Batch of 2 targets.
Target 1
Amino acid sequence: MTAIDMWAIVAGGSIGAVARYFIGLAQATWTTWPGWTGILIANLSGCLVIGFAVGIPETRSEQTVWITAFLMTGLCGALTTMSSFALDLAILLHARAWAQLSACCILTLAIGIPLVIAGSALAKAVLGGAG
Amino acid sequence: MNGVWTLLAVAIGGGIGALLRGGAETLSPATGLEAWVIILLVNLVGCLFIGYLLVWLECRLNRNGQSRLHFHPRAYRLAGIAGLLESNPTLPPTVIAASDRRLRIESGLLMTGLLGGLTTFSSFALDVVMLIEDGRWGIAGLDAGASIIGGTLAALLGLELGLLQFGKNMEPIGE
């Protein structure tokens, strides 16, 4: 990993984590939804963006730093989180909130994974000609 | 001003967490582990630490009686800590405010920032999609199951370890 890669990851990671913090804050301030929905929204956004990043035509050929290090490892990686998601599931499990536990789990997986594919298709549709 | 420090803490933690994960990903050739295995392991480690950290931070700093540990079946272990599970009227409001400030900054640095940046859902989802595209449906299912169920179990284990260590005879600070 070069120094540029490292700084790109740090920059992307900082922006991604702050964005996730603001999403959580906005969810807690402006909605009455359960607490785990903030992380859900952050995770789903990150899935769409990482799909888009993979779909950018030059990604697979040149592995440009700004896409792989900044956008994928840094920004998407820090915008999304497994630890807070798992902690939410653990808390819902302890609270015996079965409906919310299933909703959190199913919504995250069943929307998140298709969003990666959708993001990639979107990038190819929008940027396909430029590659 | 308080909000600025919290934001800075989240940004620093997120940058370091993401860099650690990026570093771990480069170990793929040296260890012979596939990329999805490394993301899985990093995520599981992060899940373990977040459970432990939650107990540590709440026991030390939560002083408004609204702990997220309230639902834990072994919350009775935490009942002796002033202001943790029930707000304590003998605590001066200034102590509660100071603890709240520290909780926001420390939890921003370590939980939202460091562990949030270290662990990732997007790379996991991308790995699952790539495994499916390669026709490795079994491995994709294994990755998904190990990440979600394993991650939750790791967080539960972290909570238990934290309770074992901090749940009894914890000296509350700042009083």
Target 2
Amino acid sequence: MQLPNIFNSKNALLLQSQVTQLLETNMESQKYGLILSPTGALELLEERNIALKNSGRLEFDSSLTLKIIHCFCNSPFIQQDDYETTLIEIQEIFYDMKNETEDSISDDDLLSLLKNFFDHECDGDIEYLKGKYLDILSRNTKRHNQTKDFFSEERGK
Amino acid sequence: MSVEQNSSQNIAQITNSVLVEKTKMGHLNQSFIQNSQPQILALLNSLVKKYTQGDSTSVRVEVAERILISIHYVMDNYLSSLPSYNDQISYLQTNGVNGLYEQGLEYIKGQIVEVKSLFSELSANMLEVPSEIYSDTFKKEIPAFLRKYNFHFNAHDTMCSLDYPLIFDDMSLQGITYIKNYLTILKIETIFCNLFPIEDLNDLLIDFGRKHRIDIINAPINLFELTFNNALFSFLSEENNLKLMVTKSQFDKVNELICNLPQTEVSQFITSTVDQLLNLLEITHPPLIKYINQYTEELLIPRILNGITNKTLFNIPVVKENVHERIVFEKAQMMDDETFRSVIDELLECENSEEKLDIISNKIHSTEDFIDILSADCLFGDEARDVFKILDEIELAVIAIIVFSDDFSSASFNLEYSIIAKKILECETPWQQEFLQFLNASDEGLLKVIDNLIKKMGLSNL
């Protein structure tokens, strides 16, 4: 097959450009005492690929990772020591939740919901966020979608 | 997985585009495909953005794969419309992937317009027949396709379930091309069927259902095949008026005519008869002529040859039953469950066979109840056979129709000892075994009477 060869040859350059983009977020995050290291940025991108693979999703650029950083860097519950780990976990949760909510919530709305739960309901406790609020969000969204589907099918009859 | 890294392998695996194929075959050079693949991925990227309406940067892999297949469908669909292989290569090299895709979309839009026009023409000429599968094609399935078809993200998806069978249906096609082809063929078949009065076609359909004991409303029956076969047999019988109805005497005449031909001349004889039929019906529509010739050559002639060999020509046309001699069997009211249970209790309490026979004679009035009694394990030893002895010939014929229901597909069915003996070996239901043993022990005169009654009652009577 030709495709892997064609695209793999560009991967190194592409990755370098993405790392640079992520490091540029330090301009904003350092206001909150948070700095992403080049190694951390690379790891965040590598973990993004793993999260995408595990959740069975495809993404054409790394803009979502940038959005996560912009959204979460002002959280009072994130310290420099756990900054990179938290970003990796939020990233993983995000893709899972896209699936769990059946793609019916936009990226911006989902990030906003996650941030709200993280800051105001869970005091920055990721495990609590995963174990309680995300389950509720997922169930409510699925129920809402089923109701919507049911009524649209009824109308279609 | 990200497109930049892991998924390129995945996308490559589902790619079956003309690009890859033609490169493999040496018609396009390596650099062309190296330039084309990023363009396809860029196209995919832009369509995914349209799909998510900018709400999401990621999609499920299945969604991306589906859109990629759709992209290839749009391109391949247009390329396959070009007259030659060289034209395809030349178009690709001149216009590139993006040009091809844009042209492909325009081509599909044109196909949609054609399909709508074809559908509207067909709807105006649709046959008024009591077939739900046929009418659903017009009232539900095609309208649903036209409503839902999305050539941006799902161009390859046929999106509806067309259960009405065509004689020649190209199932290798997909999406709008499949629908266009389906409607084109349906139009050809409908033109032929519309050459005959709709009442005759309806009678034919009803007779077909009666012959094969099927529910014509919900069964996938091709109307062209029914119409054509009967028209041909009617024509072959050399009656003055060409009709769809083929009587037993007409069939016998055609059967004798065909079976007496030397095997080597049958094909030629059928082909020339079909030509004469086309002339008589004044068929000049070239696609219909081509379709009929294809049907004759590929399906009908082999079936007739097979029918001659196996003596099953009777199954090709629908032969009209003699309605004047038909006995109509009216169903009696079945007992309610409680009454039925009380009859069973009474039977089980009986001390001798005579009492049981009295109860059955006086209280059982419907075939269903009678069969349920026979199946209820309340008759022992020879009692079942004693019950059959008190039935009159018509009642025995009704039971025989039930027991031999699987054997009636052959019109040559006759109630003879050999058939009964064969059935005894196959049959596993105890009361049916008893009935078959009863018939086997009956005299030939009774069998002939029952056989005659079965034929007069019509097999779909129950």
